[in-house]
Amino acid sequence: MKVLATNVFDEESIELEKWAKINEVDLTMTREPLTAANVDQVQGFDALSVQQVVPIGDAAVYAKIASFGIKQIAVRSVGYEFVDLAAAKANHLTITNVPVYSPRSVAEYVLAQSMRLLRHLNEFDAAVAKHDFTWQGKMAPELGELIIGVIGAGHIGSASAKLFHALGCQVLIDDPVHDPELEKFAQYVSFERILKSCDLITLHVPLLTSTQNMIDAAALKQMRPNAYLINAARGGVVDTPALLQALKNQTIAGAALDVWAGEGPYFDYDWQNKPLNNPELEEMLSLPNLIVTPHIAFFTEHSVHNIAFTALNDAILGATGKAVRNPVG
């Protein structure tokens, strides 16, 4: 069995090699995402696994993948918006993802960024680096006094809600599916109520037509001027220009973004000593009340292990004609 895993990062390669040794599989890893420009590399392999944010390509790319005998594309992430599901289906390609790898990894990231925002730690860091040791203007509330809004209460949103509740916060949730277990420590309310009532809002929704730019200028205007926003879901659920304007105008107090609609060429790449040539990203990095991280909320040892093993186990199942565990679409 020959398996191709594309766009592999260093820490992931260790787990993929472990998986290959355990399963006695011939594994080839590449460092670039799968696109029309390099799709021919798939020829000769029995199974294919990808993780990326840039689109795989048009229908012709999927037809070519199928023509090489590939039956399935195993996505090594929760999100799969870069996959054209219609083109995959038309070419009889099954798509799988990793729906649960470590919800707590992202929830812990959200908690960490909540504290950085609320306690102005990024601002103190910048000031201390300039030998400014003053406190003025940076007094903070205590976390347990706040109302936290969780938009999207799947595995990750639920884990976030539980962490905040454990720290004494009142937690409000907006999700079309009501989980009786969550109702023990959180209240289900409308999207509009979360915007108007919460001191901090964290996003945990997939990128769908219905969630594209769900946090737009109108939504931001409904938020409290002392409220914070955290997005560790998908970049496209936030209207970035509208958020930047709200941060500059102090419509909201601050935000933390682990994802960004334009992240493809930048996140997980080294741009030191090179011009970014992206005015939006440059503006994001210049704002003192915005924290940017390069899509690393998931990035823990436990998480990377689970992603590698879950995705490639499904890749083998699909390649051998067996029922896969995590189909999407």
Automatic annotation (TrEMBL):
PROSITE patterns: D_2_HYDROXYACID_DH_3. GO terms for molecular function: (S)-2-hydroxyglutarate dehydrogenase activity; D-lactate dehydrogenase (NAD+) activity; NAD binding; phosphoglycerate dehydrogenase activity. Keywords: NAD, Oxidoreductase. Residues 112-297 form the D-isomer specific 2-hydroxyacid dehydrogenase NAD-binding domain. Transmembrane segments: none annotated. It comes from the Bacteria. One of its GO terms (biological process) is L-serine biosynthetic process. SUPFAM superfamilies: Formate/glycerate dehydrogenase catalytic domain-like, NAD(P)-binding Rossmann-fold domains. Signal peptide: none annotated. Residues 10-328 form the D-isomer specific 2-hydroxyacid dehydrogenase catalytic domain. Belongs to the D-isomer specific 2-hydroxyacid dehydrogenase family. This is D-lactate dehydrogenase. It comes from Agrilactobacillus composti DSM 18527 = JCM 14202. The lineage of its organism: Bacteria, Bacillati, Bacillota, Bacilli, Lactobacillales.
